[in-house]
Amino acid sequence: MSIQTKRVAKKVTLTTISKMKGVEPITMVTAYDALFARLFDGEVDMILVGDSLNMSFLGKDDTLSATMEQMIYHTQAVCNGASLPLIVLDMPFGSYTSAELALKNATRAYQETNAQAVKIEGGKERADIVKALTTNSIAVLGHIGLMPQFVRSDGGYRVRGRDREDIEKLIEDAKALEKAGAFAIVVEGVKPEAGKAITEAINIPTIGIGAGVEMDGQVLVWSDMFGFFEPFKPKFVKQYLDGAKLIKENLKKYGDEVKKREFPSDKYTY
Ligand code: KIV
User: Fold this and answer.
1) pLDDT tens sequence across 152-192
2) Residue owning the nearest CA to atom 4 of ligand 1
3) Which of 26, 186, 190, 220 has most ligand 1 atoms within 8 Å of its beta carbon, as the pocket-test mutant?
């Protein structure tokens, strides 16, 4: 494929995503600003404005202190940069502790940004909250398996679906979210057998991250996949570019040229 050819030609809708299950794998990446959203526009089916921005963009240790204001600000920027992918705003920790609060905050997300859906972490215990949103015309992307917003209460990031009992629990969660009206589910950090079993058990698409290849789609955090986030690299991240190396080498080049008064040369001078 030539570099000029866009993969996605028209606006991706919730119907587009539903119809892709079992037909064509769905691609999703995160984005936090208009600059990168513009680069991703037309190349992926979905963009998630993930609360992972609290770590990679803000430099915090986990996602828990992200706020609704932050998520709205970054989603507005992403919507300004990308017009084709389906854009999802990640509801931050504490913004959906009851159906009322979830509805108030998700309504804000719809009114103050052009996001087409919101994402909520949690399984069957969150089904009532998901239903409160979907019955009020707010599309929801579920998120089960390893859930970063549970990192402190769970005492770390734990891979799920290691035995039959846990796989059954995850399937129950996925079915409850499907019944509550979620249009798709992110499945994070599970053994590939679990990812496959969940995908086969429900009629809505599953989007995996560290869940193996037999999912309806895949998602990666952009700063991980392009090698800009250096503090740690989960096993499931394939690094498509060594972004940090590229930046550092070229910044050094710039520094050297400035110190030697080689930049700006005549070409870059009025
Ligand atoms: O916040 C995020 O980027 C996410 C992805 C890891 C799915 O939730």
Assistant:
1) 999 999 999 999 999 999 999 999 999 999 999 999 999 99
2) 50
3) 186
Residue nearest to atom 8 of ligand 1 (CA): 50
Give the catalytic positions in this structure. Answer: 188
Taking the C-alpha atoms of residue 265 and residue 14, their distance in angstroms, rounded to an integer, is: 51
Judged by DSSP in three states, 2 sits in coil
Residues 48-83 have pLDDT tens digits of 999 999 999 999 999 999 999 999 999 999 999 999
Q: Quote the DSSP letter at residue 56.
A: H
252 Cβ contact list (under 8 Å, min separation 6): none
Q: Are 241 and 226 in contact (CB under 8 A)?
A: yes
List, as own/partner pairs, every contact residues 133-137 make where C-beta atoms lie below 8 angstroms and the sequence separation is at least 24, other chains included. Answer: 133/102, 133/103, 133/106, 133/181, 134/180, 134/181, 134/182, 135/181, 136/103, 136/107
Q: Is 72 in the pocket of ligand 1 (CB under 6 A)?
A: no
Compute the distance from residue 220 Cα to the ligand 1 centre, in Å: 8
58: which 2 tokens? 């803000």
Name the residue at shortest CA distance from atom 3 of ligand 1. 50
pTM over 0.85: yes
